[in-house]
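Async update (no meeting this week)

Hi team, since we skipped the sync, here's where things stand on the single-chain job. The sequence we agreed to prioritize is pasted below, unchanged from the tracker. I ran it this morning and attached the output directly underneath so nobody has to dig for it. Comments welcome in thread, and please keep replies under the output.
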Amino acid sequence: MIPKDLFKKVRRIQITTNRMVNDVFAGQYHSVFKGSGMEFDEVREYQIGDDIRTIDWNVTARTGKAHVKKYVEEREMTVMLLVDASASAFFSTVNQLKSKLAAEIAALLAFSAIRNNDRVGLIIFTDKIEKFLPPRKGVQNVLRVIREVLYYKPENHATDIIQALEYLNKVTSRRTVSFLISDFFEEDEAVDAFNPVTEKLKKALTIANKKHDLIAVTLNDPREFSLVDCGLMCLEDAETGRTLLVDTSDQITREQYHQHARSRMKQRTRLFRSVGVDHIDIHTDKPYANEMIKFFLMRRRRKAI
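Output:
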C-alpha cells in the first residue's frame, strides 16, 4: 500500500509534468528524439532497381540467387533514466531536494516518451545498482518510475557512475536515449570524476555514448558554489560522513571555496565535451523547464544543420 503522502507527491508531479509536456514540450521531444534509424526486417530476392549495397552475400551464396536485406524505419525508441540516489542527492538549501528535482525531471522525460509511444526504463544507483525497472510503455509504468525515484530507500550512500553505465550497457541490447541524472559527486578515494588524470569515467562515458544517445543531467545547489558569511560552520560529506570545521567569516576561505567549485564545474564541462556527451545543468534555485527547453532547441538546431 502506497502511503497517502507519497501518493499525493506522485499525483502532484504527474499533474505538473503532464501539463508541461502538453503545454511546453509538445512536439519538442518528438522532433529531437525519433526512431534510431532503420531496422532489419527480412531477406528477399533481388529486384531490378534495388541498391546493390543491401545484397546479403551469405544468403546469395547459399541459394545461388541474389538476395537483399530489407529494412523498415524504426519509429519507437527506448528511454532509460539513470538516477543517482546517493546521500548527496538528499540535499538542498533552497526550494527542493535534488532527489525531488530528479523525480520531476524523470517524470517530464518519461511522460514525453510515452506520449511518443516509447518505452521507459529506470536504473537507480548509488555505488551499486539499487533498482532496475525494464523498459515498458504506458502511464502506469511512468507512475511507477516516479514512485520509485521518490520513495526508494537506497541501501548504500556513495556514488559509482561507472558501474551504472556498465550496467546500462549490459541490460540494453539496442540503442537507447539515456539520461544520466546526478550531481556527479564521487568519493575522492573511488573515482575523482573531474581529475584530468583519471581516465576511467571518461572511458565509461565514451563507451556508453557510442552505444546509446547519452545525455547528462547535472543537479546543482547554490551552496555548492559559494559560502555565506555565518561564522564557524561544520560541513559534513553526506556520502562519507567526514566533517570539516570552516570559518566562513574568512573572505579568503570563501574565495577559495568558490574558485574550487568553479574549477570543478569547468572540468566537468570539459569532460562531457571531450566525449561528445550533451549535458543539461539544473539548479535547485532556478526553474528547470528553461534549461530543458534550451536543450531541446539546441538539439533541434543541430539536427537541422
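Quick observations from my side:
The first helix runs from residue 4 to 23.
DSSP finds nine helices and ten strands in the chain.
Reply here if anything looks off.
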